[in-house]
Write a structure and sequence with these properties.
The complex is a heterotrimer of chains A (221), B (717) and C (427). With 221 residues, chain A is of the alpha/beta class. Chain A is built from six helices and eight strands. A seven-stranded mixed sheet of chain A has the order 3-2-4-5-8-7-6. In chain A, α1 links the parallel β2 and β3. Chain A is globular and about 45 Å long. Chain A starts with 6 loop residues before the first strand and ends with a helix. The relative contact order of chain A is 0.18. Chain B is built from 18 helices and 23 strands. In chain B, the strands form four sheets. Chain B has a six-stranded mixed sheet, covered by helices on one side. In chain B, strands 13, 15, 16, 18, 19 and 20 form a six-stranded mixed sheet that branches. Chain C has an eight-stranded mixed sheet. In chain C, strands 7-6-9-10 form a four-stranded antiparallel sheet, with no helix packed on it. In chain C, α3 packs parallel to α9. Chain C is elongated, with a radius of gyration of 32 Å. Chain C is 31% helix and 27% strand. Classes of the chains: A alpha/beta (221), B alpha+beta (717), C alpha/beta (427). Chains in contact: A-B, A-C, B-C. At the A-B interface, β1, α1, β3 and α6 of A face β15, β16, β18, α11 and β21 of B.
Chain lengths: 221, 717, 427
């Protein structure tokens, strides 16, 4: 346990005293179970700290898509099982967010390509940001930190036949110029990474390394 | 001076007056006619037209001829008579004196006439004659200036289906294309409107419209292309014809005959998607039991015409990682191209078979009739109807949403206020014990509610039970009735001391942690809502995270205050903070619709422990540069500069260059495109385009980036 | 009364004709003094062929460069050339020069004496105006042709005669939002950027050609944090050799950077909540103020009396200290134009320090330029300062404008007289 530290903070609007710190933000949206993967943030923060020297906040943040606070976190994670229906405010914010340089990482927690989350999320993201198209498996995100020569790593849920019983070979993305504005996954990384970081010691291979790639890509591209 | 000489002098002055009057009248006629026609044409969408001035000139010539007619009637007797009318003192002596027949008493008459001067009256009469023509001329100038300020009618929403075409003067069109005619037909779904215009310069119409260009002649040697793709030219009778379908991007049709070239710009208008608004239900709803019918109502609007509209629903069942979905539509309706429509339906909740935990997502969707690039689909906002689970405690009611019929078991802040008000009314008739008992029951509910708000605001850290949030909401909160002092910040210390008495160290530590957590929450709420001067100060491993929502902090503070008063049976003093809390919750819900669905567990990573302990290592990588935002901007500026230079040598070629540049700018640089439109309109109509070209050039060059004082360091600071 | 007026108009016309006649036939001033007022062309030709003992010009406005050069030549040929002005001349100047930014940005600086209005325009039209004189600096996308600063008594002209040779910018820092969005802003603005962004020990994300830090390679170096400390000495040498260096955030606190910086690094200040979307967005940003600026430092931006950006010249180079360390918030959370404003601001910072040698542009047209950046100063340089005329000479000045005014007076008088006569019916 770390030493007992008194941490003093300024007024509530400046919540994060270290401006250079990366804060992992989870999107809170109206229509679905946005909080269905509460352990993913801590797990990825743990991985970022394990493998890089990036300053990172020890806990994640939750930010409403319709709120102006969204623009304080240029990388936001969105997941859920239930249908995704953006309100007008959420849609406008997501569009502005993408236009200004933000990156939204969306993962279908259902792992169900014909399911309600996939259909509705793709529709809403297309309306807000633009069409999602297949991301080539040679894209720089797959070599941003760790090397994934075969593209996105498969998840145990895919391999176990959960959901649609498919292994999805590609991720989808909406681009702004030559950078990813929305990264969309059907591979259920929310389940794959949804465990307490202390349990990593039981794994032979750290399955969160691709998450590190996503974060490093967002911070450097 | 003899009478005749005087009359001749007056006659000359009258002639000058008639001439001036005729001139002023003609000028006024020309100006007023031109002003009227210019305004009418501009409203109709034609920026300038020489026809207006031609018609005005003809009208002016007619007015001049009519107004100058009296000149021919200016004989000496008539002038003398005119003078006599204005100077009765002459008593017809003047008319007699100038009579060519002569009279014996001429000398006498001359003497009488010499005594009378008519210069003043004549002068006044002539000035009066000039008054109205002068005013009319001034009015004409003003009318013309006003007419030039009339906006050129563009496509309004109602006219989006009708193509608009600007023309170029025939004199500027090279010979093989001099009688070029454009026939533009909008797509069938938009009504198939047809517009036929001679000498087209640019055509604005919906994507999918067909444009046919034809002119007399055999068409031999004429080629056509659009965006470097050739288009076939056919001979039809004694004319030639080429046709193209308007795509989604601006383009230029280039017609060539030898070295002669003619350009026609195509400006596509995009069909907007329908706008749909869900009228009922108005808000999300949480119900205990899903029974009955839910009324649905929506309205839709489209710029061209609607085709279908319906309600869509998705039912989500399940929890954890396992969900099932079913979806459907209802209330579907075909709309016969109307721009506006209203749809209604009724959703039977019984038929959906909803169970606790299920959610129904509802929205209205409308499609337009665009069968070219669509159909365009518009959707309303989504409303969610959720069936609460049995053990769940959703205590924040949706404002305005009616609870299901007969369900009075949902406790909300509003309900708590009502209960407290009722208790306060009965207070004089109740025994103290009864009052306390009921008041504390409300306090317990208020505490539960406050905990939910606290869950949203703060996440507690670590593994230790952290005060309020660690308790099962169904448990009774700690009884504070044994604390004699008010439950203020000081009260916390006293309660701590009292609570410590007789407890094990671990119990004390747990209680201390809970108390300090509660105190910390209060301090945070106070600090955030300006009721305390302290900054947030946390000890130990705690680190505050996530959004501190000011309205919820206010609610938390107010709920705490209300709970304190209710614990002591002070129902009257509890009501104001309860109402403040309700208002704050309503503000928070409007700002961020929050589902108080349970607290996600908080895990704090010990960064110092894990930093760089990973077994694997990443690898260096390279980054690809971003592309400049508008790499073509500099090239556009160069092309415009070249076109401006060309304008003095070859205006027709310059116009063509600017047409091409304008079409390319419509997407990438719309401000430049608009400025070039103005310049083209001036150039085509032979007007001075210097100002509009200068403005376009300034826009193309990037404009003024910054203005500042000359300082010790170069740059605008 | 009317006839009296008509007679008066006839008298005025005849008097004006007589004056014109007298001015045409009067003898020149004795003593070899030739005074010319207004149009100098004929006089210059005359003086060139047969110079007077004293050649004096009375000017309404500063003459154009060719006239001025002619006067200079006459003076240098041994003639006595003097000038005075019929009304006070204003000192004015204008200069147009390229800014080291991509896409051809031009800086125009113009000034005129206090109280003297000046307008600046180019071939594309009016640019700016100072109604009461003073000095101003503008940055434009580009200028069309020559830039002219005009007032009632002067027209100063300048042209961009050089282009800048722009090299890439090197950015060094840790991976994070500030480095990401700073690189993005510069690239989107058109800069070429080389970068080394630190992710983990011995793991960097790099871009572009990363060789030694030299003015041959880079126009400027941006250091965002202390991860570039190992290159501090190399960067210091680069700055002294003419390079431009920007030290962001608290970089200037460490080691060799401290000796370059224009000031010390103060305690971090927070931004004003919500101000990032206001009209003064940078007040919403946190950062490290420039405290105790060096004697030669120039404070470029301050906030609440505290310097946030300062710069200084260091031998042949320039170093700027930018206290803000989270400018990315401006781009993300600012108003509608915040992304464009963020780009422009970063581009301007780099341009203010960049090493950008000039390359002469090919001359336009005939090769002769009409550049006249400081008309009055150039006139004084050519023929000396203004010298007032003696009274008898002043009375005998040649004045073509007076001739024109007399002619107009004659025409107007005669026309008015004839119109009045005809309108009252007389012949």
């Amino acid at each position: 346990m770390s030493a007992n530290k008194r941490t003093r903070f300024p007024i509530p609007d400046s919540r994060f005293p270290t401006s250079g710190e990366f804060v992992f933000a989870t999107a809170q949206y109206e229509s679905g179970d946005w909080d269905s993967a509460p352990l993913v943030p801590a797990n990825l923060i743990d991985s970022v700290a394990k493998y890089t020297s990036l300053p990172v906040a020890p806990t994640g943040a939750i930010v409403a898509l319709a709120s102006d606070d969204l623009f304080r976190f240029p990388l936001v994670f969105l997941t859920g099982h239930l249908p995704v229906r953006f309100t007008d405010a959420e849609r406008t914010n997501v569009r502005r967010f993408a236009d200004r340089g933000g990156m939204l990482f969306v993962d279908d927690h259902n792992h169900d390509i014909d399911g309600a989350f996939h259909k509705t999320a793709v529709e809403e993201l297309t309306r807000a940001v633009g069409p999602l198209s297949r991301l080539p498996n040679t894209h720089p995100i797959y070599s941003a930190f760790f090397k994934f020569p075969d593209g996105p790593p498969n998840t145990s849920h895919e391999l176990n036949g959960w959901g649609d019983n498919l292994v999805h070979s590609h991720l989808l993305a909406a681009m702004r110029g030559n950078r990813i504005a929305v990264l969309y996954s059907n591979k259920d990384y929310s389940s794959e990474w949804g465990y307490h970081p202390d349990n990593k010691r039981f794994l032979a291979i750290d399955n969160t390394k691709f998450g590190v790639n996503i974060i490093v890509y967002a911070l450097t591209r | 001076m003899r009478p005749l000489d005087r009359v001749m002098r007056t006659r000359r002055a009258l002639a000058a007056t008639i001439a001036t009057r005729a001139a002023l009248g003609a000028v006024a006629t020309v100006l007023l006619t031109a002003a009227f026609l210019t305004a009418a044409l501009r409203v109709a969408g034609v920026a300038t037209s020489s026809v207006a001035w031609l018609v005005a000139g003809v009208a002016g010539a007619v007015a001049l001829a009519l107004l100058a007619r009296p000149w021919a009637r200016l004989t000496v007797p008539r002038v003398a008579l005119w003078i006599e009318e204005r100077v009765p003192a002459l008593q017809y002596a003047l008319v007699t004196a100038v009579d060519p027949v002569g009279t014996a008493s001429a000398a006498f008459l001359e003497g009488e006439i010499d005594r009378v001067s008519w210069d003043r009256e004549a002068g006044r009469a002539m000035m009066r004659g000039l008054r109205w023509p002068t005013l009319a001329a001034v009015a004409g100038v003003a009318a013309l200036l006003l007419s030039l300020r009339v906006s050129v009618g563009g496509a309004t929403e109602h006219d989006r289906a009708i193509p608009s075409v600007t023309t170029t003067p025939a004199r500027d069109v090279p010979a093989p294309f001099a009688r070029l005619v454009a026939t533009v037909r909008s797509p069938a779904y938009a009504g198939g409107q047809v517009v036929r215009v001679e000498s087209p310069a640019s055509i604005g119409t919906l994507v999918g419209s067909t444009v046919v260009l034809e002119a007399p002649g055999s068409g031999e040697g004429i080629t056509a292309d659009a965006e470097d793709r050739p288009i076939a030219v056919h001979r039809v009778g004694d004319a030639w014809r080429t046709a193209v379908t308007v795509g989604a991007r601006p383009a230029v049709i280039r017609l060539r005959h030898g070295t002669v070239e003619r350009l026609v710009a195509l400006e596509p208008r995009l069909d907007s998607v329908p706008v749909v608004r869900l009228l009922f239900p108005t808000r999300d709803t949480v119900v205990r039991a899903a029974r009955g019918e839910l009324r649905l109502s929506a309205e839709a609007h489209d710029d061209i015409g609607l085709a279908t509209a319906a309600f869509e629903y998705i039912v989500s069942s399940g929890e954890g990682e396992s969900f099932k979905f079913k979806s459907g539509t209802l209330g579907a309706r075909r709309i016969d191209s109307g721009r506006d429509a209203t749809i209604g339906a009724s959703l039977s909740l019984d038929r959906l078979g909803l169970k606790p935990g299920d959610m129904v997502h509802l929205r209205a969707v409308a499609h337009d009739g665009n069968n070219v690039s669509g159909p365009g689909a518009g959707a309303s906002e989504t409303r969610v109807l959720r069936v609460a689970r049995a053990g769940e405690y959703d205590s924040i009611a949706v404002e305005g949403a009616p609870p299901s019929e007969g369900d009075k078991s949902v406790i909300s802040q509003r309900m708590l206020i009502m209960l407290t008000e009722a208790l306060d009314k009965r207070r004089p008739t109740l025994a103290r014990k009864t009052l306390l008992s009921e008041s504390r029951q409300i306090a317990r509910d208020e505490t539960r509610l406050r905990k939910r708000v606290g869950d949203i605001i703060f996440q507690r850290l670590g593994d230790n039970p952290t005060g309020e949030e660690s308790r099962n909401p169904a448990e009774a909160p700690p009884s504070d009735s044994t604390v004699s002092a008010s439950d203020s910040m000081r009260g916390d210390s006293i309660r701590r001391a009292t609570a410590r008495a007789g407890r094990t160290p671990r119990d004390v530590a747990v209680a201390d942690s809970a108390d300090s957590a509660r105190a910390a929450l209060l301090r945070a709420a106070s600090a955030a809502t300006g009721t305390g001067d302290e900054i947030l100060d946390f000890e130990g491993d705690e680190t505050p995270v996530i959004a501190i929502n000011r309205p919820l902090l206010e609610a938390y503070n107010a709920m705490w205050e209300a709970g304190r008063e209710l614990e002591q049976g002070e129902t009257g003093r509890a009501l104001p903070p309860m109402r403040r809390a309700l208002a704050a919750i309503q503000r928070a819900r409007q700002a961020e619709r929050i589902y108080l669905r349970g607290k996600p567990p908080a895990v704090v990573v010990d960064l110092a422990r894990v930093r760089l302990t990973g077994k694997d290592h990443g690898a260096a990588s390279t980054r690809l540069p971003r592309v400049p935002l508008d790499p073509a901007a500099a090239r556009r500026a160069e092309r415009l500069a070249a076109a401006i230079e060309l304008a003095s040598r070859n205006p027709a070629a310059a116009i063509d260059s600017i047409v091409m540049l304008r079409v390319e700018s419509l997407d990438a640089a719309p401000q430049l495109g608009a400025a070039l439109s103005e310049a083209l309109a001036a150039m085509r109509n032979g007007r001075d385009a210097t100002t509009s070209l200068a403005r376009a050039r300034r826009i193309a060059d990037g404009g003024v980036h910054g203005v500042g004082d000359v300082g010790a360091w170069s740059g605008v600071w | 009364m009317r006839r009296a007026c008509e007679h008066a108009l006839r008298v005025i016309a005849i008097a004006a004709i007589a004056t014109l006649l007298w001015r045409a036939i009067r003898p020149p001033i004795a003593g070899g003094v030739d005074v010319v007022h207004g149009d100098l062309r004929r006089a210059l030709v005359r003086w060139t062929l047969s110079p007077a003992t004293e050649m004096r010009v009375v000017l309404d406005a500063a003459p154009d460069p060719s006239t001025r050069d002619w006067l200079r030549a006459l003076a240098r040929a041994g003639g006595s050339v003097h000038w005075s002005s019929s009304r006070p001349f204003a000192a004015a100047a204008v200069v147009a020069e390229p800014v080291p930014e991509p896409n051809g940005v031009t800086r125009v600086r113009f000034a005129s004496a206090s109280g003297e209005a000046v307008s600046v325009a180019d071939d594309a039209g009016a640019i700016d105006t100072l109604p009461r004189g003073g000095a101003r600096e503008l940055e434009l996308g580009a200028v069309a042709g020559a830039v002219r600063a005009s007032g009632t008594t002067f027209t100063a002209t300048s042209e961009v005669r050089d282009s800048v040779v722009l090299r890439p910018v090197l950015l060094l820092g840790a991976a994070g939002w500030e480095s990401k969005f700073t690189i993005a802003a510069l690239e989107e603005r058109g800069w070429r950027v080389a970068s080394r962004v630190h992710v983990a020990p011995n793991i960097d994300v790099t871009q572009g050609s990363l060789g030694s830090i030299d003015t041959v390679r880079y126009a400027a170096v941006i250091v965002l944090d202390s991860t570039a400390a190992p290159s501090a000495n190399e960067i210091a040498r680069y700055a002294r050799a003419g390079g431009g260096v920007i030290l962001g955030g608290s970089t200037a606190r460490s080691g060799a950077f401290a000796s370059l910086a224009p000031g010390r690094v103060g305690a971090r200040v927070a931004g004003v909540a919500g101000a990032v979307s206001s009209a003064s967005p940078r007040t919403g940003l946190g950062g490290f103020p420039v405290s105790s600026p060096a004697a030669d430092a120039v404070v470029l931006e301050s906030r609440d009396g505290v310097a946030m950006i300062a710069a200084r010249r260091l031998d042949a180079g320039r170093v700027m200290q930018v206290g803000y360390d989270e400018t990315w918030r401006w781009r993300m959370a600012g108003g509608d134009e915040s992304a464009a404003a963020h780009r422009a601001w970063w581009s301007r910072l780099v341009a203010a320090v960049a090493y950008a040698p000039l390359a002469p542009l090919a001359p336009r047209g005939s090769g002769l330029t009409s550049v006249d950046e400081t008309p009055l100063a150039s006139l004084v340089d050519a023929v000396g300062p203004s010298t007032p005329m003696e009274g008898r000479i002043a009375a005998h000045t040649d004045n073509a404008r007076l001739d024109w005014m007399l002619f107009i007076l004659i025409a107007a008088s005669l026309l008015a007289e004839w119109t009045s006569r005809r309108l009252r019916g007389a012949r």
